[in-house]
């Protein structure tokens, strides 16, 4: 039986997580088709809160069998984000199974874990230049992972001057490719918040 899942993300750039979630479910013996609604295309887009977006889904179609909610921790403790997700789900769709996806501080911390992939996306897979990325046990304590990822891509590219500016203007594309090609069993698997995602997924799938 194929179940229906919906992924709510902080922004459009995190929608490639849907394919990873489908694969992770299948690896655990559960088939889930995961879609990520493009709320911004609606005539009257809902607010950015989990509660508002769940209300929008409930008005337009039946609720899914499984909900995935991505919320960057940013400057909040992950437990506060989890409580926010839990409260919103209970208020709008009580009983709906959900899996929280809470990177610290943001998804870019996960993308920084695989330096070899960064070099590949930058077009210089054989480069050995220092990317300025701290050890994996410090990635989730970085104050601005997005800036660090931008700097790492720039360093990996080996570009300077106009070429670097042109390369940097493609940061959104590079970020999307990094997320799409993320090796789930690679370096990211050592990060605590990714491990939390896997544990939560195991728990929720076991209860279906």
Descriptive report:
There is one protein chain. The chain has 208 residues and is an alpha/beta fold. It has ten helices and four strands. The protein folds into two domains: 2-102, Rossmann fold; 108-180, no CATH class. It has helices spanning 17-27, 50-60, 78-93, 108-111, 115-121, 136-139, 145-157, 161-168, 171-180, 192-207, and strands at 2-8, 31-35, 66-70, 98-101. Strands 2-1-3-4 form a four-stranded parallel β-sheet, sandwiched between helices. Strand 1 (2-8), helix 1 (17-27) and strand 2 form a beta-alpha-beta unit.
Question: What attributes characterize this protein structure?
Answer:
10% strand, 208 residues, 2 domains, 10 helices, single chain, Rossmann fold
Question: Quick gist of this model?
Answer:
48% of the residues lie in helices and 10% in strands. The chain has 208 residues and is an alpha/beta fold. Helix 3 (78-93) links the parallel strand 3 (66-70) and strand 4.
Q: Secondary-structure map with pairings?
A:
Elements: E1 2-8, H1 17-27, E2 31-35, H2 50-60, E3 66-70, H3 78-93, E4 98-101, H4 108-111, H5 115-121, H6 136-139, H7 145-157, H8 161-168, H9 171-180, H10 192-207
Parallel strand pairs: 1-2, 1-3, 3-4
Helix pairs in contact: 2-3
Q: For the largest beta sheet, what order do the strands appear in spatially?
A: 2-1-3-4
Low-confidence stretches: none
Radius of gyration: 18 Å
CATH topology of the largest domain, by name, is Rossmann fold
């Amino acid at each position: 039986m194929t179940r229906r899942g919906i992924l709510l993300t902080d922004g459009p750039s995190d929608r490639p997580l849907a394919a990873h979630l489908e694969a992770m479910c299948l690896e655990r013996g559960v088939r889930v088709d995961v879609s990520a609604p493009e709320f911004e295309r609606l005539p009257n887009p809902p607010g950015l809160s989990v509660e508002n977006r769940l209300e929008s889904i409930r008005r337009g179609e039946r609720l899914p069998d499984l909900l995935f909610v991505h919320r960057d921790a940013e400057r909040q403790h992950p437990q506060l984000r989890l409580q926010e997700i839990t409260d919103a789900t209970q208020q709008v769709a009580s009983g709906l199974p959900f899996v929280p996806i809470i990177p610290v501080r943001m998804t870019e911390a996960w993308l920084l874990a695989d330096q070899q992939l960064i070099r590949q996306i930058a077009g210089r897979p054989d480069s050995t230049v220092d990317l300025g990325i701290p050890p994996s046990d410090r990635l989730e304590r970085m104050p601005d992972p997005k800036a660090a990822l931008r700097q790492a891509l720039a360093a990996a590219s080996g570009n300077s001057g106009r070429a670097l500016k042109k390369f940097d203007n493609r940061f959104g594309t590079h970020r999307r490719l990094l997320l799409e090609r993320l090796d789930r069993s690679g370096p990211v698997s050592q990060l605590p918040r990714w491990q939390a995602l896997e544990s939560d997924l195991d728990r929720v799938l076991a209860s279906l």
